[in-house]
Amino acid sequence: MSTTIGGYLAKRLTQIGVDHHFAVAGDYNLVLLDQLLAQDGLEQVYCCNELNCGFAAEGYARAKGAACAVVTFSVGALSAINALGGAHAENLPVILVSGAPNTNDHGTGRILHHTLGTSDYGYQFEMVRHVTVAAERLFSAEDAPAKIDHVIERALALSKPVYLEIPCNVADLECPEPGPIEALLPRKPACNTTLDQAVAATLSFLEKREQVVILVGSKLRAAHGLDAAVKLADRLGCAVTITAAAKGFFPEDHPGYRGVYWGNVSSPGAEALIDNADAILCLGPVFNDYSTVGWEAWPRGEKVALVNPDDVVVAGTHFGGVDLRSFVTALSEQAPRRPLSADNSALSLPVSTPLPAEAKLTNDEMMRQIGALVTADTTLTAETGDSWFNAVRLHLPAKARVELEMQWGHIGWSVPSAFGNATGSPERQHIVMVGDGSFQLTAQEVAQMIRYELPVIIFLINNRGYVIEIKIHDGPYNYIQNWDYAGLINAFNASEGHGLGLRANTAGELAEAIDKARQNRRGPTLIECTLDREDCTDDLVRWGKEVAKTNARPPVTN
Ligand SMILES: C/C(NCc1cnc(C)nc1N)=C(/S)[C@H](O)COP(=O)(O)OP(=O)(O)O
Ligand SMILES: [Mg+2]
């Protein structure tokens, strides 16, 4: 039996659970797109541009565990590279496939369209290697299967993006059918010696310590450690806090859950919990300048055990090659059981009383109404901006998901990412919180939500500008042209009733808009929430001041 190179890739995608791939056509990838279209069980979904295509794949990977975006050479791929940087920063296995020039043109000195106008077509491959963990260029059918398998295996093993370049005259060449997928799926090293020693060292580290706290980090999901973390919390009976970027990675109805640890904008009591702990088990943490509030809130020292996706550092010893899930599972089975020491009734939940219907809409009222929408089936995608602080403050029902991009932080990511996420998990209710500034970068993808009839509810928070930047450092550059955001839906020809654009100036108008959104099941509903520019979370103001201070540090002169 044989197939084509495009058919081989298509079959491999379905074997790893990718039922859709995202694409923008270009003459370098049209034959490849035909090969992918021919695969049963693999749907081709189109995007407005290649940046959105990359972000849609990133969102799909959040839902399905892997994703694929197909773009054309150079003019397409260079836009998608930004989204690949995001997938790398957020630990998501996105496979970027780029069409490429005819193999006969290499080395001829000829000038090709869509290129820099030089005869060297290798610059894209050089650029993409900086944002991927594996990259391959195909030139023939002979080594194509091995190269395709290599990038797929690396993407899954490391939960990171990879790249495949397929010339336009190679995509339909004949090659053998793919074999079983098992060898490409993640398998952890069976080195039990190091694992056992890491666990033993941690058990003795914990032995004499009373105030144990687990801090859940944003790499925990990519390391497949969510369930193991709950088991460990049950075993240790300890308090559990999360970093902001790990929102939704630990059940908030768990008796040990004690909120978000984020320095001076932590949940009430969470900062003291970490400061007073004598043992902090950090599971998949990312301590960057934003998450440590300008390097101020960064748990370090002998009381910290670092459990990273592929290594453990505890009591001054580094145990390499130990995968997080195996380690946390073994620790939860061997640690002495302790009684429950934490009680999340101590977690004070934000309570805001409903405003009268005619009252001007406020941020708190907006969040009260959005919070009431969130259920176990909800996926809330929250954009960079005050939406971060609003989303992190929500108290989530078990199994609700929050998607954030707090490492990469590319404004505009939320709309295409939610489009991809909704494509990959149509059974869930999808909500987006996105500011006016961010929305202006990638608004087109709402048109695809209309085209594919995805009932995403988009809360467009119109506070007239880049408020997070205004709070960090104000200037004329933080103010933008105001759009008729609610009216934009009509520009996307939503007249078939597949899309709704509404505006909410008051508490009552928001409640009505949400009712309409819940009934609109055949397309997106964009609700423009108008807020005063000064009406932002206190957390943003306090956090912004600290970050501004950190940015302003003068160069150290020695
Ligand atoms: C301009 C920028 N960041 C700089 C930036 C600029 N360009 C890209 C691609 N990504 C970025 N983060 C940011 S966070 C704006 O405040 C976002 O404004 P908006 O979406 O309106 O949200 P808020 O009003 O809540 O801040
Ligand atoms: Mg704004």
Automatic annotation (TrEMBL):
Keywords of the record: Decarboxylase, Lyase, Magnesium, Metal-binding, Pyruvate, Thiamine pyrophosphate
The organism's place on the tree of life at top rank: Bacteria
A Pfam short name: TPP_enzyme_N
Catalytic reactions on record: a 2-oxocarboxylate + H(+) = an aldehyde + CO2
Group of enzyme by EC: lyase
EC number(s) on file: 4.1.1.1
Domain Thiamine pyrophosphate enzyme central residue range list: 200-318
Record has Lyase as a keyword: yes
Keyword Metal-binding assigned: yes
Family named by the database record: Belongs to the TPP enzyme family.
Name this protein carries in UniProt: pyruvate decarboxylase
Organism name: Asaia siamensis
The organism's taxonomic lineage, starting at the top: Bacteria, Pseudomonadati, Pseudomonadota, Alphaproteobacteria, Acetobacterales
